[in-house]
Amino acid sequence: MLKRKMEDVLRKWKDTEGHRPLIIKGCRQCGKTYTVRQFARENYPHEIYLNFYENKNYASVFSGSLEVDHLTMLLSSLLGPDAIFEAGKTVLILDEIQECPEARTALKFFAIDGRYDVIGTGSLLGVKGYGKRSASIPVGYEQIEEMYPMDFEEFLWANGVEAPAIQYLTECLKNETPVAEALHEKFRQLLLQYAVVGGMPAVVQTFVNTHQMNTVLQLQRGILYDYEDDMVKYADDKDKPFIRECFRSIPRQLSKENKKFQYSVVKKGATASRFSGSLQWIEDAGIILRCYNLTLPELPLDGNAIQDVFKVYMMDSGLLIAMLEDGTQFDVLQGNLFGYKGAIYENLAAGILAKMGRKLYYYHKDSGLEIDFVMRYAGKSTLVEVKASTGNTKSTKTVLNHPEKYHVGGAIKLGDYNVGRSGQILTLPFYMAFLLTSF
Fold first, then answer.
1. Which pLDDT tens digit goes with each residue over 146-167?
2. In what order do the strands lie in the sheet with 370-371?
3. What is the pTM of this model?
């Protein structure tokens, strides 16, 4: 069984007095249903599970009165003797809740009633349901949590890395001391494997069980097919071809020297007015990440973000690699990807930072000054350079050498190095990026 950090979120939620119904949102196949159902089995005598995607008939239960006693009467009649509603001991799981907007409206009634715990999961909450079928979102009566594909630490757990090894890395970061060579090499290899495998639980489990990369790739391309299938099923007809064109352009967007997202790369003559809604659809589905350029690399970062100048990354690096031609997995595992390697490493860094709950920013000026990422770290604006191979930090040094213009606290260089420091620049092995959790 794969260990997920969402388990701690669920436990904290359940232990909080007067907790509201919980909504867990995230991209398809990131592990929401499995994690929630496992938690239910371990923490409640009674679990009632409704999947609105697999059984459209369940939506009829919520088509009339949403009073809790009325709903429990209908559900117990529909599901039979296994549907036991017992105050304080029953959890109701509403899977793919975006398929039944009225069920989400009902969360207000369950919150006020308070007898039963309710957990809803949704893959397309931001893009489906409320545009075509109007229903009231229970503002103030639900708690929303975001779930992502497995992060690097969860991947380490899946591959048998124990807490003491991770604690050792934490101490190396804290004290800025090099990692022992044997462990350094082990984590280097695990990072390359994570880049290729990604964090989709079914893919990770297959990798752990078999280490057969052809099977991994087959699963990943199946997920990509499902994503495109969703685009055909759920998007407005006028947007469907544009959404897929945006999605398929991502590898090309990242291949450019300046990785700023350009609509002209999607299709010749494409404009923001025609394609921006399509890109937003993919982002709302949890498939991509948007990284905004800054007017200045200083706090507050969000206040300095340029909303219409951004880069786009795939949420899952394994899926990005699966979008490329056969043989790319082998190249990445061997460290031989030539110019495109920088795009993959940037995408990997974006995913690691985003899964910490960080919004993504970068800094680029037409003069050629460019910083891969800028983040708040330990209360200061911090530059982050991602180096797929040994590379210079000219832009970083330029910013750091002008404190009167750029109010930056320091810089971190991530790459194929061990821990070290040179003035204001802290060098870290790429695999330690997941430890940069201090905001």
1. 999 999 999 999 999 999 999 9
2. 305-314, 288-294, 360-364, 370-371
3. 0.95
